[in-house]
């Protein structure tokens, strides 16, 4: 399997090279040169498989040439056996005759990011083994990526992780899950700006030869293809349990950066019968506007009770625009340059028409989010977090064939957002016992001005240069 950049001018790489590179050298995002295809019989054969075996089947086409099947299986066993509190890893929970939750929060940091990042940490370690160099991981987080990446990488030899988060714009639990990890290779940076600024700073570091040339940089955000690849697995795992390939399944995905829902698009491209992907946004609704009217224009970020979705620039949307636009790297380069200049573009007809075949979207306001959270508790006994509430609100409102089951991705444990959950349901969720002492742990992080010069100077003081 080879990978190409959405902007067309970076060299094609294999899976190992793509994992270690993160962002393409031309500023684009890597995607597979071709989408692997599963037959109906191959999908049907996944019924009854464990999560690990499902993961091996789904991911093997993407890693060929870099990992053999036995090695991939061993890495998946390390990632998912023992570090997740549920034997199914990502269990399904039924809410009523049609609505289901896919619980993605049973990992060590109580969020869906664990599913990908536990594996990504092992991939970094595997691919760096025997190399006489140091890896510098740089990432930005709107809440959950940071804690999941830090848990996966803390204490690993030969690498440092620098994680930027928007100061005061993540929940107390999210912040503490990052800042109480005191391993010497973990460096938390709080910036006085929003997530979009943090994400832009990370991209600027990768694209600046004077900085990136000094270090062996890689990424843990969903700009890294390996992150998305691992997330494709749970779409297959859920769908076959609800009757795929003989029965189509719809998925409602609370999303800001478009990574989790793009993994669903990949599953559909591979042959999974996905009836519809519902893109559920909060009031930071750039994706909803883009999918309904073609208006991809960034506004000001509005802080909400679902902070992981408080995003106005969705990095992974570039992958979809590339795939739906005929995979024309030059056209995407021009389109993204126009966006970076004006912060506003219109999707092309081919992009809009292609998206409409699989995607629908909804903008969920705070009242509808709370109503969905209250319904889940009163009618099904399920306490869900605000992000999941947004996904469920969109799922309950969509116009689809009633025979099609709808799976809402439950992206975080409710205890990570105790105050809004209590306001909506009257229930104050408790942290699971495995993280119950979180508020007694010592914190460590640095506050840095949100400028390229200040952030890179801070990292340069602590990072290990390339040899």
TrEMBL record:
One record GO biological process: threonine biosynthetic process
Domain Threonine synthase N-terminal, chain residue ranges per copy: 2-80
Biological pathway: Amino-acid biosynthesis; L-threonine biosynthesis; L-threonine from L-aspartate: step 5/5
Pfam families: PALP (PF00291), THR4_C (PF24857), Thr_synth_N (PF14821)
Cofactor(s) the record lists: pyridoxal 5'-phosphate
Keywords associated with the record: Amino-acid biosynthesis, Lyase, Pyridoxal phosphate, Threonine biosynthesis
Domain of life: Bacteria
Protein name, UniProt field: Threonine synthase
Species, as recorded: Stakelama pacifica
Lineage: Bacteria, Pseudomonadati, Pseudomonadota, Alphaproteobacteria, Sphingomonadales
